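ok so for the tutorial part 2 we go from a plain amino acid sequence to predicted structure tokens. step 1 is just haveing the sequence, like this:
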Amino acid sequence: MHPFFALPAVAADRWQMQQGERFALDGLLAQLRPPLAIEVGTFEGGSLRRIAAHAEHVHAFDVDPRVAGLADEFDNVTFHIGDSAELLPQVLAELGREGRHVDFALVDASHTRAAVRGDGAALLAADACRQTVIVFHDSANAEVRAGLDDLDLPGHPKVALALLDCVPGYLVRAHHDPELVGQAFNGLALVVLDDGRDPRARGYDAPEFVPIPALHDAYAGAHEQPARAAGKAAAVGSAAAVSAVVGAAAGALLARRLR
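step 2 — the prediction. this is what the tokens look like for a chain of 259 residues:
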């Protein structure tokens, strides 16, 4: 077997992230090596195993009491079982009173708009999060994206970098569950807090690029017409429309890189 398939980011079988997301997260953690990290949403522990491998200590939050059963695997993780809407602000406040600082946080819990907004707002408001790298999973999902938009990240004084499509997500075009078709999932948003940083040195998603949700909307819109209209011409026209949108985005990216 090629050594590639034995890498932790590849071999993990209980990790709800795509390969690109895994390598991005693991690579970021390897560079940061955070003394103190937070994970909101643990599930089977896929991401937690990589966070704990690179961090000195991790506070992990999940509403499912079964997650506490993972405790035997770790000697550097404190588990908090319950609603992060209540527990996360409490733990952050306690860390702040102790003079401790959160260096990294992964938010991957409930994917409702309100939950994402609440978890993000708790991190942004905490005294323990002044120079913190935050990653939000499933940033391509409509509910998650709406929660991120509600935070008004470019307008927040702590936010020095906000890349909502740092790792692009995917649009479901076929699935055994028809409710998932047409929805977007995956994707990593990268938010860096650097309280007091000069606003002129801050960075955000470039406005000349097409955001991933807009590309997904264009794809879905272009494929609705062939479904209603008969004939090959409609299908060809829709494919051309999608190609034009994607091509324009790719052209803008290439032009920017060549400058």
